[in-house]
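Human: For the file, kindly provide a plain-text protein record giving the amino acid sequence and the backbone structure tokens, at your earliest convenience.
Assistant:
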Amino acid sequence: MVTNDADIDSRRKALKARVQAQIEASREAKIERQAVAAEELVVDESDLNAAIQEANDDFNEHMASMERSNASQLRTLAASLILVGSILGMASGGLILQGNPDDLITSFSVIGNDENVDVSGVALEPEGTAVQNIEVELISRDTQEVIGITTTDENGYFWFKSIDITELQLTFTLEGYTTVERIFIPDGAQIRTVTMQPGNGTVVENEIVLKDGWNAEDAVALSTAVGVLTVLTGLIGVQAAVEARRAKHYRRAQYLAGFALFSRGLIIFGPALILSGMVMLMISREQFADVGGE
């Protein structure tokens, strides 16, 4: 009987030891699983952060690429506008240089489109009294041919009908008065009043002058200078367009484009295009190597 109790106690201890061992093993397994799960969770979070960062970097790079592309297109458009405006300026300068000087001279007078005009006027004494019976000769300056002869009426008035528009001379002759020779180009309007001074001799009055003392030769010289300046500034504008396309020197491109504004293509249309191009260059200035460093 005693032996049986001892055997039972021994079995109980063995069973208890096995149960404790299993409990310990289960606890260790649980701890190990928790550790593995925690480790796996940390790895997953790290991978997720890396993926998010990579996606963010790709998005930023894509947006930056789009901005560079848009700026490049804007700069290209600016260069094109400057080029077109400058070409218009060069064309305008060429038209000025190819113009007929005679046409230019005519354009400075108030001459209409008619081929013939009437020539008329009044001859008066200095105090305003009309001078009658003055012999008035109309002479062509080119051929020295006498085109017509008439006399003034009681009001000092004279009139020649249907005279060609060319350089002419009117000679006013009356005994006891100074002879007046007036050189002019007819414009269809009555000529300036002729003043007959008592006395002898001849007075020459050259009416072929422009306002403010400019004569026809000065007008032609001025037109030529303007034409040359227009062509040169147009060429500068072409160089400005090249600089804009190269995108190396922002200030140089803007300065050249500023000079190109004086090319006056189609009066204001060309400068308006060039000015628009300058504004676009200002917007895309970061594209230039000396500004954005690209």
